[in-house]
Amino acid sequence: MSIEIEHIRKQYGSFTALDDVSLTIGVGELMALLGPSGSGKTTLLRIIAGLESPDGGSILLHGEESTQQSASTRGIGFVFQHYALFRHMTIFENVAFGMRVQSRQLRLSRQKIRERVRDLLHLVQLDTYAQMYPEQLSGGQRQRVALARALAVQPKVLLLDEPFSALDAKVRKELRDWLRRIHDELHVTTVLVTHDQEEALEVADRVAILNQGRLEQIGTPQSIYDRPASPFVYNFLGNVNLFHGRLLADLSSQRPEGSTQDSNDSSIGFVRPHELELSRELPDDVKAVLASVVRIHATGPQIRLELSIAGNGRPVAAELGRKQFEELALVPGDDIFVWPQSIRLFENAEDASLLLDQGAGI
Amino acid sequence: MSRGRTIPSSMLLRPTTTQRAGRAALILLALLFLTGFLILPVVAVFSQALSQGWAIYRDSIVQEDVLSALRLTCLVAAIAVPLNVLFGIAASWAITRFEFPGKSLMITMIDIPLSVSPVVAGMMYVEVFGLHGWLGPWLMEHNLHVIFAVPGIVLATVFVTCPFVARELIPFMQAQGSDEEIAAAVLGANGWNLFWRVTLPNIKWALLYGTILAASRSIGEFGAVSVVSGHIRGKTTTLPLEVEMLYNEYNFTAAFATASLLTLAAIVTLTIKKIVEGSTGVARNIEEQEGES
User: Fold this and answer.
1) Closest to A310 measured CA to CA, from A295, A287, A294, A329
2) DSSP A147-212
3) Which of A149, A242, B60, B66 could disulfide-pair with B254, CB 3.0 to 4.6 Å?
4) Distance, in angstroms, between B166 CA and closest chain A CA?
5) Distances (CA, A) of A339 to A258, A291, A331, B278
6) In this predicted structure, what is the pLDDT of residue A257?
7) Residue A73: closest CA among chain B residues belongs to which residue?
């Protein structure tokens, strides 16, 4: 079932949660709504579910106007951040609940319900937990039960509200891969709300990035990562170095990419840490600046360096592979030449200068 | 003390002799207080009631007037408690699950019966339903008796006991949140299913606790009932009123025998309350663990 979100607006007092958001989610697609807290992503999800009503705009489920429809009749499965399992029911009863409360004409027979619950518990790999209570399960197991419970009513749309954010990093990653596998198996149209960019980029078919109630960018994970449409998206999707003023001019006069753009005083250049090149000798074909190594984080496959630009002391983050790091044989205090492989310019970007003021993006 | 000096860190944990003495003194003080003000009076009630022997005790209770007072007390409780359960669930549901104007006013209003003297409560009902009250003439015309009759006693009891269930449920339901109910609604449950399958099982212990409090108060209520009852023996006297009347007639043995019934009722409700508290304690612990994980 497709979901069409048309010009949705929502206001809480003087706070604008959603400001004219339009978005279409295709049949069988896994869409991630990504944004920082307060960006309106959860509100949008709750409006799709029918748990909130918008102040304006409409929701079409499978082409059908559904804005006024109640949550219980929309045929959706909802997975909550804090599981919201029924604490006084066994795992079995939790999963069976949605089938048991169906109207008499639609309700499955006891035998059918039992079979279906067993299948679902098998799907979420909790076969042996049927007679336990939620409090006896770990967070990851509980969230799997919550997913089984949501799938039990054969929803046409599955909505997940930060489902993994209460779990620890390892479980979160496991469940993320597992959710993707389940989605590939069942092809239920799915909307996943998350503030974790890695989660969104890794799991979703497409990602919609929200900021302050507005849609910033929508696209496949790769297109969004490679071509961020705004300074906000650039910054939100990972660590980034911001260059402006003279330093930007020093670096970007011979940049290999985007050379048509003028770097006037108000532009800001964005460079990801792994896009920085490092060398002990001054390269002759590109412009580079001198920096000194402040700190080295050498755990993991990528080595992260904290550098300080010579002269003005601006901090810069760089990332390089283990092999290159060993060739350079850097220790803290070393001087090194730095230049960007590519630099992305945003002109007069208000929010970008805001980022600079906050010292974000290193 | 000498051991304390060798392991300084444990000095704080292990009570010293003075600390131990202080603890003993505090416990003793509390015990003396309890004995003097609570245990002795209860013993006095039973010893007075039984002072003339078991037979007289039994005869004092099996009097027609006392039995009728007992019946009336049970009847009033049987009406007032369910009404309060209904009101309590409705009010706490509304307050904890919805936003509406005047919500904080409503919470304050629920507390009025606790802050107003029961005598005043009784007088308010006389003012409204009494012969010279606002509705008095109309009630007379239709031959309806409220004041100095059973309906007035029920009304006064409902008034005094109305906060008990709601006050138990509101904080409990606030702490629980509405997540499970929202989940149930999304899964297609209608209001009926939602209440019976999700809400009620979750609040049952708090509800039972509030009900016990309301029941014990409605059995023991004196002030408000005294104003509206009219003290008609065998008709409008509840047990507490009967005790007072017997006492004023210098019929001490009968008065204490009747009082012992009320005391017994209190002990029974306290015992049930203790058991229920144990169960809610368990439920609350589980909740806390969930909150932590």
Assistant:
1) A294
2) HHHHHHT--SEEEEESTTTTS-HHHHHHHHHHHHHHHHHH--EEEEEES-HHHHHHH-SEEEEEET
3) B60
4) 22
5) 15, 10, 19, 69
6) 46
7) B188
Answer whether residue B219 shows pLDDT above 50. Answer: yes
Is-contact B262 B215, C-beta < 8 A? no
Question: How big is the A-B interface in CB pairs under 8 Å?
Answer: 69
User: And the tokens for B6?
Assistant: 């060798």
Average pLDDT over every residue of A217-224: 93
Chain A residue numbers with beta carbons less than 8 Å from the beta carbon of B286 are 87, 135
Chain B hits for A138, Cβ within 8 Å? 293
Task: State the CATH class of domain B54-292.
Answer: mainly alpha
A244-250 long-range contacts, CB within 8 A, separation 24+: A244/A268, A244/A269, A244/A356, A247/A289, A247/A309, A247/A312, A247/A314, A248/A343, A250/A287, A250/A289
Check whether A263 has a pLDDT greater than 60.
Answer: no
Residues of A whose CB is below 8 A from B190: 72, 101
How far apart are alpha carbons A203 and A178 in whole angstroms? 10
pLDDT at B289 > cutoff 90 = no
Residues A292 and A348 sit within 8 Å (Cβ to Cβ): no
Closest CA–CA distance from residue A207 to any residue of chain B (Å): 25
Instruction: Specify the residue for token string 């979703």.
Output: A204
Determine, for residues B188 and A98 on separate chains, whether the beta-carbon distance falls below 8 Å: yes
Determine the average pLDDT of the residues in A214-220.
93
Q: What amino acid is encoded at B155 in this protein? A: L
Which residue from B182, B187, B198 is facing A98, i.e. has the nearest CB?
Answer: B187
> In chain A, what residues touch B290 (CB-CB under 8 Å)?
87, 134-135
Beta carbons of B187 and A88 less than 8 Å apart: no
Closest of B115, B99, B103, B91 to residue B166, by C-alpha? B91
- With an 8 Å Cβ cutoff, are B184 and A102 in contact? no
Give the pTM: 0.75
Contact B180 A49 (CB under 8 A): no
What's the rounded Cα separation, in Å, for the pair A79 and B160? 44
Please report how many Cα atoms fall inside a 13 Å half-sphere around the Cα of residue B65, on the Cβ side. 16
A270 three-state secondary structure: strand
Of A78, A88, A102, the CB nearest to B183: A78
Domain boundaries, chain B: 14-49, 54-292
Query: At residue A118, does pLDDT exceed 70?
Result: yes
Report the residue of A76, A88, A142, A158 to disrupt the B interface, i.e. the one with the largest count of B CBs within 10 Å.
A88
ipTM associated with this complex: 0.77
Q: Cα dihedral angle (B267, B271, B272, B277), rounded to 10 degrees?
A: 130
Any idea what the Cα angle at residue B289 is, between residues B283 and B293, rounded to 5°? 145
Residue of B188, B287, B293 lying closest to A102 (CB–CB): B188
Q: What is the enclosing helix (H) or strand (E) of A222?
A: helix A221-226
Q: What is the mean pLDDT of residues A14-36?
A: 92
Average pLDDT over residues B150-156: 88
pLDDT digits (tens, 9 = 90+) for A173-208: 888 988 999 899 888 999 999 998 889 999 999 999
Contact A97 B180 (CB under 8 A): no
Do A153 and B187 count as a contact with CB atoms less than 8 A apart?
yes
pLDDT for the residue numbered B95: 92
